[in-house]
Amino acid sequence: MKAKIAFLHKPFDLRIEEVELPELKPNQVLIQVGACGICGSDVECFEGRSAEGRYDIAPYTPGHEWGGRIIKAGSEVKELKIGNKVTGDCVMECGVCYNCKEGLMPSACLNMREMGFRPDSPGGMGEYMIAEEQYIHVIPDDWSYEMGAWVETFSIGYFGIWGNGGYIDASDTALIMGGGPVGLSAAMVSKAASAKTIVADPIASRRERALKYGADIVLDP
């Protein structure tokens, strides 16, 4: 099966190429991508200002904020079904190294892969992508693919409030510096916890949007 996939070869060299998709391994699924976001990190990799994207190893397919639909499943896939709407993890931990067995965060994995940043990992900037079942998560059927692509971004804002033992409730005041996508996500989480939520951003349109999505007060820093 052929598919048109984007490959970043080096700074300012992003090519759309038609490639033959490999056969699925027993634990993998084939996903038809419906939407993929462009993260600031993708832009920095494209411009050669970040070493996170590993085109020094080989061309890779960017895109770690995506939503899609499963159209084929390997023989050992247990929970995912053909037709499921899905999104996926960005950090792909091995599950077997010392840090993983100690229960540390996936980003502490000694054999970590990153979806959308490495040639040995899938990316969402293409018609299709292939990934192992363990990194894929089902989203509700009534969600758009664009909402599926928002999950990764929202998780960062969520973790900023609740991660690593974080805690917030109605007795707290949260000051969120920046009203971009992650800042807005953090504002929504803060508001859901009934905290007094303040968002500071120098851009007026972002301050206005923050009020729409949960900020009680907005400030021009």
Architecture overview:
Helix 3 packs across helix 4. The mean pLDDT is 96. A 5-stranded antiparallel sheet has the order 8-3-4-5-9. Strands 10-11-12 form a 3-stranded parallel sheet, with helices on one face. It is globular and about 55 Å long. It has helices at 40-46, 98-101, 145-162, 181-192, 204-212; strands spanning 2-10, 13-20, 28-36, 66-73, 85-88, 91-92, 113-114, 128-132, 136-138, 173-177, 196-200, 217-219. Helix content is 23%, strand content 29%. It is built from 5 helices and 12 strands. With 221 residues, the protein is an alpha+beta fold.
H and E order? EEEHEEEHEEEHEHEHE
Major sheet, described briefly?
Answer: 5 strands, antiparallel
Low-confidence stretches: none
Secondary structural class: alpha+beta
What radius of gyration results from the CA coordinates?
Answer: 19 Å
Query: Which oligomeric state applies?
Result: single chain
The separation of the N and C termini measures 52 Å
Strand order, main sheet: write it out: 8-3-4-5-9
Count of runs of 4 or more consecutive helical residues: 5
Gross morphology: globular
* Average pLDDT level: 96
Number of strands: 12
Helix amount: 10-25%
Please indicate the percent range of residues in DSSP E strands (runs of 2 or more). 25-35%
